[in-house]
Design brief:
Elements (H helix, E strand, L loop, with lengths): L12 E5 L6 H14 L3 E4 L4 H8 L5 E6 L8 H14 L3 E5 L2 H5 L3 H12 L7 E5 L7 H14 L3 E3 L11 H11 L4 E5 L5 H9 L4 E4 L2 H6 L2
Parallel strand pairs: 1-2, 1-8, 2-3, 3-4, 4-5, 5-6, 6-7, 7-8
Length: 221
């Protein structure tokens, strides 16, 4: 996919604010920016889902919330409960963190159960993205995680939380796209702060970008 201008990226961007000290006023501003620039979604912490939903409910901008963020080490029952609550509050999309410890321990069945437990707890039309946190994984582990996520019912695999020791890379996006092909989509997030980086991610196979620097990206400042 070729991107020719910064404004073309708007429809691919999850306009993101996940910082721990975000205020309600900042979420309102984020939501209004998403409306103005026609971003794909706002990606926010669970406590703000209903607030953002009330601003965005008559628009095409989706509400995305994070699940077991940013560590992914909670129990599947808690993850599912958080997902159910977010959907009830108005979330259209969920970005859940994979259990990285299980994957590194090669407890692949447990990784799959975690994801499928959440996938089975939400309506079919809700988009589920699984965050792999690639900075902690080898290419082999990234491939394995992608296969598990697809099998468990994920709609997207996502590179990073933005809270780890590294973010998205073009190389990882290419590996993820190679594995998922047309069975799922790829979201690149973490450290994407300018047009050239975002463009490279899309042209490498990502169909969604997670960014808190969205306005800078689409204006190419």
């Amino acid at each position: 996919m070729i991107i020719n201008s910064p404004k073309e990226l708007s429809k691919y961007i999850d306009h993101t604010m996940l910082k721990p000290d975000a205020t309600e006023l900042e979420i309102e501003k984020l939501s209004n920016e998403a409306l103005k620039y026609k971003f794909a979604s706002v990606c926010i912490n669970p406590c703000f889902v209903s607030y953002a939903f009330n601003i965005l409910k008559d628009s095409d901008v989706k509400v995305c919330s994070v699940i077991d963020f940013p560590l992914g080490s909670g129990t599947r029952e808690i993850k599912a409960a958080e997902a159910i609550k977010a959907v009830a509050d108005g979330a259209d999309e969920l970005d859940m963190v994979m259990n990285i410890s299980y994957l590194k321990s090669r407890k692949y069945d447990e990784v799959e159960k975690d994801i499928s437990y959440v996938a089975d707890s939400i309506p079919e039309h809700i988009i589920l993205k699984v965050i792999l946190e690639i900075c902690y994984l080898t290419d082999e582990e990234i491939r394995k995680a992608c296969l598990i996520a697809i099998k468990a019912g994920a709609d997207f695999v996502k590179t990073s939380t933005g809270f780890g020791k590294g973010g998205a890379t073009v190389e990882a996006v290419k590996v993820m796209k190679e594995v998922v092909r047309n069975r799922a989509e790829v979201k690149a997030a973490g450290g994407i702060r300018d047009f050239d980086t975002a463009k490279a991610m899309i042209e490498s196979g990502a169909t969604r970008i997670g960014a808190s620097s969205s306005l800078k990206i689409i204006s190419a400042e």
